[in-house]
Amino acid sequence: MEDLVIRDADVVDGTGADSYRADVLIDDGRIVSIVKEAAAAGCQRPKAVRELDAEGLVLSPGFIDMHAHSDLALLRDPDHSAKLAQGVTLEVLGQDGLSYAPVDDPTLEGVRRAITGWNGYGDDLDLDWRSVGEYLDRLDHGFEGRGIAVNAAYLIPQGTVRALVVGWEDRPATDRELDRMRRLVAEGLEQGAVGLSSGLTYTPGMYARGAELTELCRVVARYGGYYCPHHRSYGAGALEAYAEMVELTREAGCPLHLAHATMNFGVNEGRAPELLALLDEALDSGADITLDTYPYTPGCTTLAALLPSWASEGGPQEVLRRLADDDAAARIRHDLEVTGADGCHGVPVDWDTIEISGVGDERLADHVGRTVHASALLRGEEPWTTARRLLLEDRLAPTILQHVGHEENVRTIMRHRVHTGGSDGVLTGAKPHPRAYGTFPRYLGHYVREAGILSLEECVAHLTGRPAARLRLPDRGLVREGHRADLVLFDPATVAAGATYEAPRTPPTGIPHVLIDGRFVIEDGRRTDALAGRAVRRSPV
Fold this sequence. Notes:
With about 550 residues, the protein is α/β, with parallel strands linked by helices. The strands form four sheets. Strands 1, 2, 3, 4, 5, 17, 18, 19 and 20 form a nine-stranded mixed beta sheet that branches. It has a five-stranded parallel beta sheet with strand order 6-7-8-9-10. Strands 11-12-16 form a three-stranded parallel beta sheet. The chain is globular. The chain has helices spanning about 40, 75, 80-85, 105-115, 115-120, 130-140, 160-165, 175-190, 210-220, 240-250, 270-285, 310, 315-325, 325-340, 370-380, 385-395, 405-415, 435-450, 455-465, 465-470; strands at about 1-10, 20-25, 30-35, 50-55, 60, 65, 90-95, 150-155, 195-200, 225-230, 255-260, 290-295, 300, 355-360, 400, 420, 485-490, 515, 520-525, 525. Helix content is about 35%, strand content about 20%. The protein starts with a strand and ends in a 14-residue tail after the last strand. Its EC number is 3.5.1.81. One of its GO terms (molecular function) is N-acyl-D-amino-acid deacylase activity.
């Protein structure tokens, strides 16, 4: 007898097709049989060691988080309910051009400092890998060889590669350095990475010119991967930045996946249709493009990310040195508040939109939950003084919510034919963005059931089948015979995000069961002790 039969589920299969009622039989981690309308047909129904009555529940593929920052969290927290409770069964790591492989010792230290706000410094972990393959092996073995909470794919971070080869300086790569970067990207893809990411408003990735990125994308294309850029601007010049990525990947012959594809700041209010027109023109001419978004208006990053690129040249220690120097700090302030720093997307910063969401030093915790402007008022000082002091005292660790998005843009982009879901969820800090804990149930509850922006079948396809196709995973992302049993059962009438800006770690409702590889990881709304996740490596071309 098979392991499990899920009876009388309303199957939404991830293709976008209409739902249907069925019994779904699972054995040895895979879907072995789907019997449609089993009860009504009067046929002998499939039997298994265990039966689950799914009356009133939707059965869908597990959700794929196309933009996750769980690179260390998966090795730190075996529970990882932040994602599992949402129905996420696979996360794509290595985002925004900065992560922990490939590295040598000095590069690793610089990266740890640069993205402490995303993942913590990591001094609670043994970061003993150096190559992409070693990192994926570490994920495979997880906790005492048992695995990790969810499946994970990895993008080679272009900024980390540049730091390893060129350093943190703002200069073109030499021919020899470019050759080495090509080799590192090829090696990472051979070891199982699914593509390449960039953070082109983060150092040192932002120092790469278009020609350099094009050459790296040519390597990605040869291996059947995709390029996932956080491009050069989401504010002033956003459309030009999107167009650069479209043209760059067209020239390289490389598939493009646009990370957190938003149109933010006042200069872009109501301009989402212009972005989609740009993408439609490229798609209609044969380009291979997808994108992901989160269903919220504020962004989330580090406070240090707002600084102008010249201030970040040389790495984290040089940033701190410049912030401590009064003349350099005055120049940074002018770029931020008057000119519009490239780190702040070319838009002069409005300190009343910058909310501190986390700090590394708990002695600074009274800033959390307040905007920089509000925190400065309490201290009787100018906002820049508060921001500068925070960066220095917390050694670049503060994270922020940036309240610069537009609901109309969010809704317009999520309707698009190449849209997928990504949380961009940072799990650290006292008051993280609620998207880390609420993205997928918010799509299903708010935007499907309440707002009617997408049908249930469309939305599930955006969160499952479409991302699996982008990742070239031939046996995931659909409820289909022979596919892996990465599945979610949810109540379409009650599914909702519990996370709010005031209580961002509140779990969702209406998702009683989640399975990975046929094993219950959430059962009756509670986390089991199963560690069914593994590294998911790129399929050969």
